[in-house]
Specification:
three-stranded antiparallel beta sheet; disordered N terminus; about 600 residues; about 30% helix
Length: about 600
């Protein structure tokens, strides 16, 4: 197992997710919460150890005789919930630590309950609060037996139930206490704006019971009953956990700056909502029975894209915010030394023409699935189509947000075809809607000819990454899924084979080649992209290679960590996950591939 013990950097897959549907945290197998943003996914972290070291904030609860970095004996989520149990076995007994963030009424809270299983174990808690991504040390004082930490706009209350001995040491709050069989000690960390009064304290044990009930009630809605139910359910829970409940927006990941290459610079902030995920997200939610979430995601989508079609962005904030300025955090050394650590994402300002197709395809899917119509949705689609009709021939930055020159990316053009095709289908199904169906048919035909004439390498029998290139792109695996060509078309089969051969990595798939002068304008390398590997599963299935599709899907299931989570990428040589974590795009791919294999 790769693990930089000198710097106490745990593998990405040695973390589990907890969350309250507005923000989330990562709990390590060593009992330390190393990432927590309050009060939203995109807020400043008060625990940022995962991107730095202990002095950047963390909260560890473990047996006193457990060395720094020592991991729990085993851990698991409580059946179909987001409540985590970590078990520790020592020479004197056994305990478990229960971690959760209850769905909030007022304030975000992290609850950690230590429960004795056998014998008697002495436990320790070390809490280091560091606001603003590990940069600000708060002022900590006692108040009626509890601790309160304040710095600028942030205030955190810390208490235990029953009370245990607590003291300050090295700019941290420490506690030690014994736990015998059947005993429980709960710790509650509560955030609120420093100018507001303290929220009413919660009963941690009642909150645990309610959280278990809430998650069980939610997962009971799942309609999927196929052979991969455990994996599908865990992925759906993860998607739900990445949902910002007030708006319905789904964050692409819970973290920022977890690297695509250890020691590299490909470190981005994914705590925002990408339009590229929209169709695949809706597909998975509708097909598995989560219609409330599908409604909420569509409403978020319509609010976010409202406005001038020329100003359509590829990503938005959790509430639909447009400004996501990118900056670096120089006081953080980065995960395992992978600097810089970044917040915000400058790719929000890129031109990616494929997102027009993603939005229109999503709204077409929602209509086809019978979601109640939004009266203004079609007018928005017509406005987007009018813009795309005038601009689809332009080069852009493409799906992968390259930071090199704009190019005529094949995937972008294919999604422009999707936009026109879905408009034609909608108008054919409902001629009462406004729109010139002949015009959109002409656009659809023109884009199709352009892609086939300029984006296909006749010598190798494959679609390429961009016009005039010999490079390949895993996004072309989506060509049969979106209906651009039928699965049995020789050009589709040739593309699947070429991508598999040239972008394959120990059976998985890379997005594109990073060798030589990379198309993305960045130095270094990256791992196999998990969403693309799921796309290959779908493509193999659609082209009649059922056995190979199932074998690859099983290989991908084995990449998950022991609590069922996936990052963005995977390094098959080192056997570790890479990139931001957990990644919605990867889990969406898992759900949709399971649905595809199940017919």
């Amino acid at each position: 197992m790769w693990w930089n013990k000198a710097q106490m950097t745990q593998p990405i897959e040695d973390y589990a997710l907890i969350g309250d549907l507005m923000t989330s945290g990562l709990v390590g197998r060593d009992g330390s919460v190393d990432w927590l943003c309050l009060p939203r996914f995109d807020s400043g972290a008060c625990f940022a150890r995962i991107l730095g070291d202990e002095e950047n904030g963390h909260w560890r609860i473990a047996p006193l005789d457990a060395a720094d970095g020592e991991r729990c004996t085993r851990w698991a989520y409580v059946d179909d919930t987001l409540v985590l149990e970590s078990y520790w076995e020592t020479d004197t007994g056994a305990v478990k630590v229960i971690d959760l963030m209850p769905q909030r009424d007022v304030a975000p809270e992290v609850i950690r309950i230590v429960e004795g299983i056998s014998g008697r174990v002495r436990m320790g808690s070390t809490l280091r609060l560091r606001f603003d991504y590990g940069h600000v040390v708060p002022w900590v004082r006692r108040s009626n037996g509890d601790r309160v930490a304040i710095a600028g706009p942030d205030s955190v209350w810390f208490r235990s139930e029953p009370p245990v001995r607590t003291w300050g040491e090295d700019n941290s709050t420490r506690s030690q206490f014994p736990v015998a069989e059947g005993q429980r000690v709960a710790f509650v960390l509560t955030w609120h704006p420093s100018h507001e009064p303290r929220p009413e304290p919660v009963d941690p044990y009642a909150a645990l019971d309610q959280s278990l009930a809430d998650w069980r009630e939610w997962t009971a809605q799942c309609r999927y009953e196929g052979p991969y139910r455990e994996a599908v359910t865990r992925s759906l829970i993860t998607l739900k956990a990445l949902t910002y409940a007030p708006t319905g927006g789904i964050a692409a990941a819970a973290t920022t700056s977890l690297p695509e290459e250890i020691g590299g610079v490909r470190n981005w902030d994914y705590r925002y909502c990408w339009l590229r995920d929209s169709t695949l997200t809706l597909d998975s939610l509708i097909a598995t029975g989560f219609l409330d979430e599908a409604h909420a995601w569509r409403r978020w989508l319509l609010r976010a894209v409202a406005g001038d079609p020329a100003d359509l962005q590829i990503m938005y904030g959790l509430g639909g915010e447009r400004r996501i300025p990118e900056s670096e955090l120089p006081w953080l050394r980065g995960y395992a030394g992978s600097a810089p650590a970044r917040v915000g994402n400058a790719a929000a300002d890129q031109l990616q023409l494929d997102v027009y197709g993603e939005v229109i395809d999503s709204l077409y899917l929602a209509r086809s699935a019978g979601l109640p119509a939004e009266r203004h949705a079609w007018r928005i689609q017509i406005a987007l189509l009018d813009f795309l009709e005038r601009n689809w021939h332009r080069p852009d930055e493409g799906l992968w947000e390259v930071r090199g020159p704009r190019r005529h990316f094949v995937h972008s053009k294919v999604m422009a075809w999707v936009a026109a095709d879905r408009a034609v289908r909608t108008l054919e199904a409902d001629p009462s809607l406004d729109g010139d169906v002949k015009r959109f048919r002409a656009m659809r035909d023109a884009v199709h000819r352009d892609v086939c004439d300029n984006g296909f390498d006749t010598e190798r029998g494959t679609f390429t990454q961009y016009y005039g290139s010999r490079e390949l792109d895993a996004a072309t695996l989506l060509i049969p899924r979106v209906g651009f060509l039928p699965p049995d078309d020789p050009r589709v089969i040739g593309t699947v084979d070429a991508v598999r051969a040239e972008l394959g990595s120990s059976g998985l798939v890379r997005r594109y080649s990073t060798e030589g002068v990379s198309v993305d304008g960045l130095p270094g390398d990256e791992g196999a992209f998990l969403a693309c590997s799921f796309w290959l599963v779908d493509a193999l299935h659609m082209t009649g290679r059922e056995t190979e599709a199932r074998e690859l899907f099983d290989r991908l299931l084995a990449v998950r960590n022991d609590v069922g989570l996936l990052a963005e990428e995977y390094d098959p040589v080192a056997g570790r996950q890479l990139g931001n974590y957990p990644q919605a795009f990867s889990h969406i791919g898992l759900v949709n591939s399971a649905l595809t294999l199940g017919g």
